[in-house]
Fold this sequence. Notes:
Elements: H1 5-12, H2 22-31, E1 33-37, E2 40-47, H3 49-54, E3 61-64, E4 69-72, H4 78-95, E5 108-112, E6 118-123, H5 127-130, E7 134-145, E8 148-156, E9 171-174, H6 181-193, H7 197-203, E10 205-215, E11 227-238, E12 252-259, H8 260-268, H9 274-286, H10 298-304
Parallel strand pairs: 1-4, 7-11
Antiparallel strand pairs: 1-2, 3-4, 5-6, 7-8, 7-9, 8-12, 10-11
Helix pairs in contact: 1-9
Amino acid sequence: MSLTNLDLVDAVDGFPYYQVDPDLYAASISTYYELRVTDHDYALGYMLPSVAEVFRGIPHWDLNDDDRILTLTEGSTPAERSAVVATTLEALRKTDHFKVLAKWRNELYPVYGRNKELLFDVERAASPLFGVVTYGVHLTAFVKKDGELRIWIPRRARTKQTYGGMLDNAVAGGIATGEVAFESLVRECAEEASLPEDLVRSEAKTVGCITYFYIRDKNAGGETGLMQPEVEYVYDLELPEDVVPKPGDDEVEEFYLWTVDEVKEHLAKGEFKPNCAAVMIDFFIRHGILTPEGEKDFIEIVARLHRRFEFPTL
């Protein structure tokens, strides 16, 4: 079956909208637990009840079933809170209770409050357990050859723990605590595509961001149904014809240089990692390839790629 552009957006932005189905939205919200920290009385993420239940009785955590809130009660500084979170997750990792923790990365993601202040850090692999907003960078690399736009598309290594063998954006990666978006991009360009740093710094263009609320499926690895609201800072890079991206690590098998029609064909077959498909659709919109005249769901697609979250963001 051929997937539409809206199908691809549905796949990455699966959390219900109040405006579309108030009853479904209310039912979902009433099922989940909110994650909070002491003295910050607002949600930082949504957690499955089965996940929140595991925190019952663990020191420095309070599980309130009446209000459906899990609160981190210990710590008044980011360092103190982060230490409690790290200790808890290390202990849970040793029990093998959560499959997602088997993909431990030793990389910390930041969690922010309403004033854009850092509240605590969390191990990257554990972030979906808490349902907190995470941040990444995605770059589309392209060339213009004989007046025709061609796009560099990598295939993820089939041995990768998540989305193995699927198609990706030229460069993509998460933003760790303490990193700014562009420096993260420069690092990922070297690691994943062997792109020269001076070229990236001088020619990569920041072109906005996309936001979506992903519900993890089996391709993500680990438990399904975990919530993953994400912000992706988006970049374009027009490459000279003699600059060819090459895998710089074991995360990419190979790169293809495809026409727009070839990219569309593989999108329709569902071969792209879900959020990478969303980035490609955003690229097509910005470059006038996907238009209101040619896409009946244009307005909904554009809106869904820029979702406003229930949680604090930068």
